[in-house]
Amino acid sequence: MLKNNEKKVRTQEVHFSRKLLAIPYLAFIAVFVAVPLVLIIIYAFSDGNGHFTFKNAVEFFTNADYINSLVTSAIIGIANTAICLLIGYPLAYILAKKEYKFNFFMVILFIMPMWINFILRTYATRDLLHILHLSNYSLVSTMIGMVYNFLPFVILPLYTTMIKMDKSVIEAANDLGAKPYQTFFRVIIPMSYPGILSAISMVFVPTMSSYAITDILGNAKVSVIGSSINLVLTTLSQNMGSFMALIMLIIMGISMFLTRKKDKTENVRGGLW
């Protein structure tokens, strides 16, 4: 009986200590996440005098410039994600193969841009594009800058997923007579779904909200929603800017939810075929 009571007391102490440790994190989330989010919602549905209104919503959805910038951001986000995956997946697959020497150093080389200041990388890209006589092509320059800046965010999660894949499963598929392309598409790619979904989340969402690259490389000819939000917040209306930011938060939340749901579906389904 005494031992059981001692165990119960220790268990209660552990639970209590965990609750205490969670307090700073909860306070941080409340102050730096929940409160700003509530303020954005309040400003989004109020006017300059603090009165509740749907005026900002009506203005946003009836303004062609705002809608065009949102659509442009979505197109650039999808295109950048697709290009980064097409380039990053084969690179990550090659780097993850054990038979190649100095793989780790090659991985460091590819993800090194992540350690350099974002704006500095973009200005360096602008200078390079100017030397190559590509700086006058606004959309091309923007896409090159996007791919260069976000490619490491594809390679890293794919690489970490691929080095953990069970090689015996791949060998079993080969032993059962699967052709190389069948093994790749029906075994390797499904096994790397977590890395793919993580890469999509790490590229699409930041690309949608990024405007520094388009401002620097796009020569003010590529209008994205991030630039519009910055312009509205600084020169026009904080309330309108808050509503536009809320729209971006909703889009990002939906994209994160869909990738998360897809990841759970793949984990539940499992199997090779």
How large is the share of residues in beta strands? under 5%
Secondary structure category = mainly alpha
| Unreliable residue runs | 268-273
Question: Largest sheet, described in full?
Answer: none
According to CATH, what is the topology of the largest domain?
MetI-like fold
Q: Span between N and C termini?
A: 54 Å
CATH homologous superfamily label of the largest domain: MetI-like
The CATH C-level name of the largest domain is Mainly Alpha
What level of helicity do the residues show?
Answer: over 70%
Tally of DSSP β-strands: 0
Mean of residue pLDDT values = 78
Relevant terms:
MetI-like fold, 273 residues, globular, disordered C terminus, single chain, mainly alpha, 13 helices, 0% strand, 2 domains
What are the SSEs and their pairings?
Elements: H1 2-44, H2 55-62, H3 64-96, H4 103-111, H5 118-131, H6 138-150, H7 152-162, H8 167-175, H9 180-191, H10 193-209, H11 212-217, H12 225-236, H13 238-269
Task: Characterize the structure shown.
- This protein is mainly α and 273 residues long.
- Helices cover 80% and strands 0% of the residues.
- It has 2 domains: 1-44; 62-269, MetI-like (MetI-like fold), CATH 1.10.3720.10.
- The longest helix is centred in the first third of the chain and has 43 residues, at 2-44.
